[in-house]
Amino acid sequence: MNTNIEKYIQELLYEHDCVIIPGFGGFIGNYSPARINPVYNTFYPPYKSLLFNIHLKQNDGLLASRISQTEQIPYSHAIDMIREMLVTWNRQLETGHELVIEGVGKIVKETNGILQFEQDISVNYLPDSFGLTSLVSPAISRSGRQDESWKKPVRQISAAPVRSGKLSRTMKWAAVMALPVGLATFLSLSNIDQIRSFKQNYTGFLFPGSAPAVKRITESPKIILPVKKSVHPLQKIAGQDQPAPSTVSQEVKPEAREASGSDINKPYAIIVGAFRFRENADNLVVKLKEEGYDGTICDITATGLFRVSIGSYTGRDEAISQLAALRSGNYSSAWLLTK
């Protein structure tokens, strides 16, 4: 009877990954890939590794149903057959003997009451590995001395000798390029003010679609002038003047003067700024007047720039002299216009 039940356990392990023996435990199958034993040069195919879990004791009906259908007996009789088998198994384990389940493995009960299971690797329950067996491939041994002429030559790369007292070609080019690069850097740093002024004054000329220039010149202080007192004729009564209305203060902002006819006739003018927007040019004129210069809007260029001059001169020598004085002061970007 035991043999027949063990046969049914084997059949179920081929079909299922878990087979429970009611009241005893369950066998769980897991896929294991192919492996190699490097010591014995043996190749093993994939197989289903089995584990025994003593906590899987609840009857799921799988083993009893297979016995009942195959033996053509009632389900209750199949349960009784399993119980009778378990009495024999437990007696063997209690007496210290190994419980060998044919085709599945052996179970040993240790002194602490724990059951240890060892799978029978002679049977592979993985259907995909049907017909595959282990293969032994002996190690390949090469006898005799190999012909040294077949050895791959090793290419040795040696560093190029460094000649003392001579620079490499790269160092020579670096020395040649260092002088112009250093000179360009020095000139750019020394003329940074002129570059900024050029960027501020000619942004509208170079980029017509750009945003209006930012006002960097502060607005001139507002001058408050008192209004002269005037007496209306109707206020004179009986030869006495009535008190006049209180003084009303007005804010007067000096207007920027454009070049007069006499300035236009002078062939030389010193330009200190050019703006696309008239408001920026007027602000610079006001600032020049506050500093004591005769600032005017000299002309309007063909591209629509308002050029602000700081003075017009008849003689070239006088204009150049004034230009040098201005450049040494706050207007280092000033330039001479010849009309």
How does this model look, in words?
- The protein has 339 residues and is α+β, with helices and mostly antiparallel strands.
- The chain folds into 2 domains: 2-136, no CATH class; 197-207 and 248-339, Sporulation related repeat (Alpha-Beta Plaits, 2-Layer Sandwich).
- The protein is 32% helix and 23% strand.
- The protein has helices at 2-15, 62-71, 75-94, 169-190, 192-201, 203-206, 261-265, 278-290, 316-327; strands at residues 18-21, 25-32, 35-37, 42-44, 47-53, 99-101, 105-109, 115-119, 135-136, 223-226, 236-237, 240-241, 249-252, 268-275, 296-300, 306-313, 335-338.
- It has a 4-stranded antiparallel β-sheet with strand order 15-16-14-17.
- It starts with a helix and ends with a strand.
- Mean pLDDT is 75; it is low at 202-256.
